[in-house]
Write a structure and sequence with these properties.
The protein is of the alpha/beta class and about 475 residues long. Helix content is about 35%, strand content about 15%. The protein folds into 3 domains: about 190 residues, Rossmann fold (3-Layer(aba) Sandwich); about 100 residues, Rossmann fold (3-Layer(aba) Sandwich); about 150 residues, CBS-domain, CATH 3.10.580.10. The strands form 4 sheets. The protein has a 6-stranded mixed beta sheet. Strands 5-4-3-6 form a 4-stranded parallel beta sheet, with helices on both faces. Strands 11-12-13 form a 3-stranded mixed beta sheet. It starts with 20 loop residues before the first strand and ends with a helix.
Length: about 475
């Protein structure tokens, strides 16, 4: 029998923080500098969000904002929700989380596994829209008695948690040798909290924000990326641009490919936001000398993305993979574009408020038989921003039956969106899908890039047979 106390935590809350660091020797083998990952995946909830979740709840209790029986309500991409759910389980609170519909289904499932209620809202709406996940969270907070919304985007305890824990850990673990810190920017808590601490220790440390291409931090409008848990469509109060020396925009394709590469080459299962951060760190590291030490923060595990990033069928359907040795949709689209006089893909769209008569005029002008109905006319589009479709035959039949249809907005008469296929889908599968649909919308890297019809497929097959 061994004397003394056992080395056992009293609760999961005591396991938050003190996460390990590991050298990415394989993925960074072509770099002269050191590339080191801070693995936030070892927190009880599997992500860096456990840190601010605990800090925000404890601060709310001190301020009297949370009392026994209270309900915590928060819009989340999943990880903050898990952190809050763990803390709530230990402290006796109920949780309601609001999520956007672009999140992986397993993220919703895990929150429900913790006993939380989950409300799912559309992605392709403005933050001020009543159905957005920000607006929905505000409404639920107003309607729910004894509720508290931590508001991770403006709650100062979010960056404070990283200033007091994550930053000091990185400094101590690298013995003060860190020269560059790379992390995704979302709520601004991690990049601002860690950045402030490291710059106080050494003003020469460069802080780099890894951002999905299209997010506001890298100059976009907050669309149309698919990467989850990072990037924003507004400027969070917790993001301090004065602490960020450089913002590196990373495409969904590069983020997902990097996440898969790190997982397979390093044996570290990381998510899309981690892929974004590592891709940015690799880009920064290519210009650095051997004396540089680049620390990249891995915010969460890839376990929440198994149905997407690590699912070859999903990656192919969204145009991120072209796995077939045989002919594929990309070949058919390329042939179609080459045969057209203007050399452009057949992607003609109208927004939901355009009148039917104007949509018909556009069809005639562009000499197309299909139009996409979208929530925005800004390109590139995201797949979820396509809300419907219009066919020449359908519009003619509707307007012949009732001429007043011509003055309606297209949202009132639009058909369902065209079935979507990735550029890597085989011609055999394309043939099967066109057997039940007049046309398909082609995705490349998650973005619609063209429409293919049965006529296009026949033209491609004819050309191949004559080659």
């Amino acid at each position: 029998m061994v004397d003394g106390e056992m080395d056992v935590a009293a609760s999961p809350l005591q396991l938050i923080g003190r996460t390990p660091m590991v050298r990415l020797a394989t993925i960074g083998q072509d770099l002269d500098c050191d590339l080191i990952a801070k693995l936030e995946t070892t927190n009880p909830g599997g992500s860096s969000k456990d840190r601010p979740a605990l800090a925000m709840v404890l601060a709310a209790e001190r301020d009297g904002l949370l009392t026994p029986g209270s309900t915590i309500i928060e819009p989340t991409s999943g990880n903050t929700g898990v952190g809050l759910a763990i803390v709530a389980a230990q402290r006796g609170y109920h949780c309601i989380f609001v999520m956007s519909d672009k999140m992986a289904p397993e993220k919703i499932d895990v929150l429900r596994a913790y006993g939380a209620e989950v409300v799912v809202c559309p992605t392709a709406v403005a933050p001020e829209d009543p159905s957005s996940y920000y607006s929905t969270a505000e409404r639920l907070t107003r309607e729910t008695p004894h509720s508290f919304r931590p508001d991770q985007y403006s709650n100062p305890n979010n960056p404070l948690a990283h200033y007091e824990t994550t930053g000091p850990e990185i400094w101590e673990q690298t013995r003060g040798r860190v020269t560059h810190f790379v992390a995704g920017a979302g709520t601004g808590g991690t990049i601002s909290g860690v950045g402030r601490y490291l710059k106080e220790k050494n003003p020469a440390v460069r802080v780099v924000a890894a951002d999905p291409a299209g997010s506001v931090f890298s100059g976009g409008a907050g669309r149309p990326y698919l990467t989850e848990g990072v990037g924003e469509d507004f400027w969070p109060a917790n993001y301090d641009p004065a602490l960020v020396d450089e913002v590196v925009a990373i495409s969904d394709a590069d983020a997902f490919a990097t996440a898969r590469a790190v997982t397979r080459r390093e044996g570290l299962l990381i998510g899309g936001s981690g892929g974004t951060a590592v891709a940015a760190a690799l880009r920064v590291g290519r210009t650095l000398p051997a004396s540089a030490v680049v620390v990249v923060l891995i915010p969460d595990s890839g376990r929440g993305y198994l149905s997407k990033i690590f699912n070859d069928a999903w990656m192919t359907d969204f145009g991120f993979l072209r796995p077939h040795g045989e002919m594929d949709v990309g070949d058919v689209l390329q042939t179609k574009v080459a045969r057209q006089a203007d050399g452009l893909a057949d992607l003609v769209l109208v927004t939901e408020d355009v009148l039917v008569r104007d949509a018909i005029s556009l069809m005639r002008e562009k000499d197309v038989s299909q139009l996409l109905v979208t929530v925005t006319d800004e390109l590139p589009l995201a797949a979820k921003e396509v809300s419907g479709s219009l066919s020449e035959l359908g519009l003619l039949e509707a307007s012949t039956r009732d001429a007043s249809v011509l003055n309606l907005p297209v949202r009132d008469v639009a058909d369902e969106p065209l079935p979507m296929v990735g550029v890597g889908v085989s011609v055999t599968e394309l043939t099967r899908r066109l057997s039940t649909a007049a046309g398909v919308l082609v995705l490349d890297g998650g973005h619609p890039v063209g429409v293919l019809t049965r006529s296009d497929l026949l033209g491609f097959l004819e050309q191949r047979s004559n080659a």
